Amino acid sequence: MVRSSFVVGLDVGTSSAKAVAIDQDGNVAASAASAYPTYVVRPGWTEQDPYDWQNAAFGILAEIAGKTNGGIEAIGLTGQMHAATFLDARDMPIRNALLWNDQRTAEQAAEIEALIGRERYISITGNGCHTGFQVPKILWVRENEPSRYDRIASVLLAKDFVRLALCGESATDVSDASGTGVVDIRTRDYSTPLLDVLSIPKMWLPKIVESPAVCGAITKRAARTAGVRPGTPIVGGAGDNAAGALGADVVDPCAMLLSLGTSGVLLSPSVQVRIDPKGAFHAFLHAVPGLTFSSGVTLAAGGSLAWFRRILSSDPGLDEPTSTSLTLEAADSPVGSNGVVFAPYLSGERAPHLDPHVRGAWVGLSTATSRADLTRAVLEGVAFSLRDVLEGLRALGILPTELRAVGPACSNPLWRSILCNVLGLPIVLPTIDEGAAFGAAILAAVGAGWYADVRSASTALVRFRPLDHHPDADEAARYDELYLRFIELYPRLHALV
Questions:
Q1: 8 A C-beta contact, residue 267 and residue 281
Q2: Residues 6+ away with beta carbon under 8 Å from 341
Q3: Residue 344, preceding bond cis, omega within 30 degrees?
Q4: Which residue segments constitute the domains of the chain, with CATH numbers given?
Q5: Least confident window among 159-173, 300-314, 316-330
Q6: Residue 497 banded pLDDT, cuts 50, 70, 90
Q7: Residue 156 and residue 170 in contact, taking contact as beta carbons nearer than 8 Å
Q8: Ramachandran quadrant class, 440 (left: phi over 0; alpha: psi -120 to 50; beta: rest)
Q9: Which of 71, 122, 272, 461 counts the most CB atoms within 10 A of its CB?
């Protein structure tokens, strides 16, 4: 009997770990997921236990291995970017990891830019020093938890902590590394001058490899728990945004990724490095060797709807709502949500404002405001925030003609229609929306030797549904008017901080 061959993409996400196995035709043969908690220590401080990532990852790999009868040829890793994971000399976590949306490091981010010089820092890394990045978190631990800082032997990202457990290798890929805050975007390696000024030992940081490169193999010890054959190769993988772009075949500048998960991301690939002199928009290394990408992030996209659902669920006087029931209800509210506007700054904001302190708001409430109005305002507010991002990317010379949408929120017809009309671009969906995990599987397919390079693998394995959302001229024009009202909110909310 000939054993079927599969590759696996493993995503260490913000809310859960997810794995998908695909065959050589790009069909999903198996999938599995396992959730874990996020700890909000205080407003704006978010942490997770790295062992929760490890346990979830091993469990779903074992489930996938069982479903595929042990035919896994390679594994690609992806995950939430920027999660700072501090390990001691025995590779054990010293404390919970600080996540991408953790905002406690505003002082340290400013300190780094002052030490380096803001313009110089942006010219080297392609980014301003954001609170969510890994490097200000290292300084935060140094300044606030010195006893823990003294025990640090290495600092890894989320997916790379799982890699260490799987194959014993301390490594990361170029795309994830470029979000640490200490990588030179032109050399695709760590910047020694930055590390020296910040007094961060280079030995703490994992080696950097290109995303499709094989950088390790499953150990016998890990194989017993994960159910995967010892020696199964692991490729470099990618940060979740770069992997999500591959999962939607976003390797051409005409196509822009729209990713709507906990956060919302717009991403455009490029051969040349496009740097925002203000540092609000990211310039990162792509999972495609030789490419970079520009992106902007709104921190609370799907997270805004999840928050609204959560506070409704805590009210015993209301039926337990689901995200689906809320959005169905929102369809009863007209364009403009009967005058209600929502600013989705629940976790501060990244692009284009670079403001960790601003907070969200509803404006325009009255005694006539319904739950449907509030829900639709959330959907529209996130879309307007992404319009802010799009306008900033256009100012950098990025002019997409199509959005390729991934993430669970994009499967919602109403929200997708709102996004299409607010952003003014057609939206297409991949036939397989497994997000970053699918992109990681594409990288594993290259590592397994199925394809010669990432571009050919992405083109061959990604397919799209028939186009179902063109902008409606009347609604798009109405949203253009409403957007002008939305952009008046930020300066007023910022003034209240």
A1: no
A2: 362, 363, 364, 377, 380, 381, 482, 485, 486, 489
A3: no
A4: 6-248+432-461 (3.30.420.40), 302-428+467-495 (3.30.420.40)
A5: 316-330
A6: confident
A7: yes
A8: alpha
A9: 461
Tokens at 43, concatenated = 């407003």
Rounded Cα distance, 91 and 163, in Å: 12
168 φ, ψ (degrees, to nearest 5): 75, 10
For every residue of 348-388, DSSP letters joined together read: BB-TTT-BSS---EEES--TT--HHHHHHHHHHHHHHHHHH
DSSP string over 195-250: HHHHT--GGGSPEEE-TTSEEEE--HHHHHHH-PPTT-EEE--EEHHHHHHHHTT-
E-strand ranges in 308-460 read 341-343, 361-363, 402-406, 427-428
Tokens of 396: 């950098």
Q: Nearest to residue 249, comparing CAs of 457, 20, 79, 11?
A: 457
The band of 435, judged by pLDDT with boundaries at 50, 70 and 90, is confident
Rounded distance between C-alpha atoms, residue 406 and residue 265, angstroms: 10
Amino acid at 275: I
Residue 322: predicted pLDDT: 74
Question: What positions carry a catalytic annotation?
Answer: 240
Identify which of 87, 79, 80, 84 has the alpha carbon closest to the alpha carbon of residue 98: 84
177 vs 206: CA distance, rounded Å: 9
Question: Residues 413-435: what's their mean pLDDT?
Answer: 92
As a whole number of angstroms, the distance between CA 417 and CA 313 comes to: 26
Q: What letter does residue 322 receive in the DSSP assignment?
A: -
What pTM was estimated for this model as a whole?
A: 0.88
How many angstroms separate the first and last alpha carbons of the chain?
67
Interval 224-271: pLDDT, tens:
999 999 999 999 999 998 999 999 999 988 899 999 888 899 999 988
Contact 31, 434 (CB under 8 A): yes
Nearest to 81 by CA among 182, 200, 178: 178
Closest CA to 222 of 140, 147, 162, 310: 162
Q: Maximum CA pair distance of the chain?
A: 69
